[in-house]
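Async update (no meeting this week)

Hi team, since we skipped the sync, here's where things stand on the single-chain job. The sequence we agreed to prioritize is pasted below, unchanged from the tracker. I ran it this morning and attached the output directly underneath so nobody has to dig for it. Comments welcome in thread, and please keep replies under the output.
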Amino acid sequence: MDSLVGRVLDALERSGQADNTQIVLYADHGWHLGEKGISGKNSLWEESTQVPLIFAGPGIRPGRCKQPVELLDIFPTLCELAQLPAVESLEGQSLSPLLKNPKSRRTRPAITTHNPGSHAIRTEKWRYIRYANGSEELYDKKRDPHEWTNLAAKPELAKTKTELAQWLPQNEKPHAPGSQSRVLKQASDGTWLWEGKPVRISELER
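Output:
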């Protein structure tokens, strides 16, 4: 991967368009390799949701921004960098202010969804997760970067949860008809189904 990125950048330099090109490097999301006892990438934890995201080009200040952002932000960012009209219906936000000044403040946290009703809200300090069955997780990312201690039940953090929960999506769309791969949904009898098969908690805990 590193070699191929280098070849692309070398070709861009030779083309004479390097000073007139915005570069974005990003990837698929993460993969658990035993963390929290699972293997795969069907979770709302950090290991499964973080990705590399690098912007470079004219007007972009070198530096590292520590604020969580979303891949949905890429398109509106490129529109602004290319001086194209903004698309108001997009959910993403332009990252142009952060690219000009990595220490500037984002107006909202990053939001990750894994099936309707299951979302993670990520700020610099907190990861708050609410699942479709109503269960919650809250992690202090400064003190607990690997998310081992769920603080959701602590009464003194109820206000923090409420503040984070205001960012949970309110108007969710159902799965497209026929969807099954990596789909979690609740049957009419209350049973939770993963890819069409009942989820048995006893089997998950073994």
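Quick observations from my side:
The first helix runs from residue 2 to 15.
The first strand starts at residue 23 and ends at 26.
Reply here if anything looks off.
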